[in-house]
Amino acid sequence: MRTRFIDTSSFLYAGFAILAASLFAAFAFVGKQATDYRDVGQLIGEKQIQHSILDRLQEAESAQRGYLLTNDAAYLAPLDAATAHIAGDFDVLTRGSEPGEERDALEALRGLANEKLAEMRKTVELQASGRHEEALAVVRAGSGRASMERLRVGLDAKSARQQQMIDTQSRIVERSGSLLRAGAAIAISVTILIGAATIGLLRNRLNEIASAQAELRDVNVALSAEAAQREQLAEQLRQSQKMEAIGQLTGGLAHDFNNMLAVVIGSVNLAKRRLSTDPTETLRYLDGALEGAEHAATLTHRLLAFSRRQPLAPEPIDPNKMVSTMAEMLRRTLGEDVCLEAVFAGGLWRAFADPSQLETTILNLALNARDAMPQGGKLTIETSNAYLDENYSARELDIPPGQYVLIAVTDTGTGMNRDTVARAFDPFFTTKPAGRGTGLGLSQVYGFVRQSGGHVRIYSEQGLGTTIKLYLPRHHGPATVAPAAATHARSTPRSEKSETILIVEDDVRVRDLTADTLAELGYNVLAAESAAAALRQLEVCPNISLLFTDVVMPDTNGRKLAEEAWKRRPDLKILFTTGYTPNAVVHNGVLDPGVELIVKPYSIDRLARKVRDVLDGARAVPSETKTMRRKVLIVDDDAAVCEAMAELLRLENYEVCVASDGLRALEAAQTFKPDVALLDLGLPGINGYETARRLRQLPETRDLLLLAATGAGGDEVRRLCEAAGFDLHLVKPIDLDALKALIDGQRPHPTRSA
């Protein structure tokens, strides 16, 4: 069977070669035929032009005679036309002729035509000047007739030659057609033979193919079973790795928190026992308990930093100035065995990050470097401008290309191997001996830099040292840097003006403890367990200076309470507190503008300073609070589009209501009372135009900003939108920043399409 298959294949290859040759020849003949047809067409066109020249000259002669007989200028139109077109006709003939005798003959004929036209133009000029007899004399002289006759003879001769060429080309075209038909017959015959052979081959191969398919199905079943088994094993491995990571995290947490709780619980128990017998020892145990609790708070903050959930207050930073300011403190911290060198770049851009967190990050890296150089060494902190291009960003995860400010910390210590570098940012992973570190320093660095929109990389060689590069986003705004806060110690501030603070906290123990703490600091304290109770206190107590509220509460969050409080008391100062930073006052990891926040747990000194700073500072209302939260009604029958836009606007702190058709939109508008309505025009039931008209008629929505959203633009849609009462017509997809500008009140001229 294999031999027969090979012979048949050879026959097919030969047949395909003959077919290809036939087709190639056919294409060649077709191309030649097209060229011959084009040549014949050109010759026919030239004959027509030649006849046109004679016709125009004869019409010009008739016009000349009519004018000489009647002196009526209306007869001169054919003469003017001949003068205008004959030169162009000769130009066309000249371009189609070959240089040499043929072109010289055409130029001679052009001269004869020009002589005839000149003779006719001369008689016309004489007749126009009243010299009729002289004009007749020119005609009787016969020079024009002679020129005309010679021109006719020359053009007739050229036409005869062209006719011969046309006849010759026609015979060639006929022969090409015959050859083309013969070639087509051969190609059809070969095609039939190849088709027959192919059918025979396919019949012979069908059984083999069916057998191969059956075998392939069996193999596929086996492979699918193996792939399913491998996927199951891979899922088990991923689950095992996930549980191992969770186990490492929870194990580290349990270990560190148990140590700290052991200190706190043991110290408090001992303090209770010694309270009546040894006050000095009692204070020592209480100090130990406080130290353990502070370590636990630090651990919590580091975990939030690693998970990118800490509240940041970024601002423009001059890294050169920051490192220079920290240099002396770092030298004292690192000790005499470590030589610190700072290399500052000229023309350094401003970075945009949280200054206190960046200082902590640099300090953590410096301490890690010191621990990696037990025998001493050199620590270099270097700054420079950097640009991460698209190729680099494509190799990394969630690193946008662009301009960054680089801070590199390099040591000459023991270095790390590749496996250690890969795990260096894992929480609770450390190569230090037991008791020398929590394993959260680098994870905190990683979380802070990534939450700031930056990038961090480790470059290390064992025995040579380590470089950690921090890429912080560049600040593109004004180059003003906030003055560094004073770092010198100051005494715990107290109230000296009998100020009143309203505490809002749902946890009774935290509320009572905070109240006692503030009372200890000299403040008058009022307490409320909920937002409703706090608002009642504000109504009956006009002398409240500060609202100190938890962010997360059962009935409503602290941000909504603050908005209601500011409606009643625009001058009221507010301080938020929380143990975790939800989106109420923090968005994308950054504190909202104007928000004052202190994170739990806090010491009495830190609380005292924060409260004093807020009370002594200027009242700064966040921008979204000044204008209040704008209410947006989105109406679209496409649920996916509607919810996506609604979620984007909610993330920008707008209050959003959605509706899927016009009737639901009208119902929602009466209760929701939106500031802005974004309507799709192609709504089911009543369309967007009619919905807009009805919204304009409602007293609750007569003055709202009406925005039309559609996939099509144009003057007609704009006209209809204007007639329906829309303020603006937006074409999908809608730019979110432009929409935000419209919602916030930056309204362009009504009915202008965007």
Keywords, please?
Rossmann fold, 14% strand, five-stranded mixed β-sheet, disordered C terminus, disordered N terminus, Heat Shock Protein 90, 21 helices, elongated
Short recap of the structure:
With 754 residues, the chain is of the alpha/beta class. The protein is 59% helix and 14% strand.
Gyration radius, in Å: 47 Å
State the low-pLDDT regions, or none.
1-6, 484-489, 582-591, 622-627, 746-754
Structural class: alpha/beta
On the 0 to 100 scale, the average pLDDT is: 76
- Total count of strands: 19
Shape: elongated
User: Order of strands across the widest beta sheet?
Assistant: 2-4-5-7-6
CATH topology of the domain at 319-473: Heat Shock Protein 90
Task: Characterize the main sheet.
Answer: 5 strands, mixed
- The number of helical runs is 21
CATH homologous superfamily name of the domain at 319-473?
Histidine kinase-like ATPase, C-terminal domain
Oligomeric state of shown chains: single chain
Query: According to CATH, what is the class of the domain at 319-473?
Result: Alpha Beta
Distance between the termini: 73 Å
Percent in helix: 55-70%
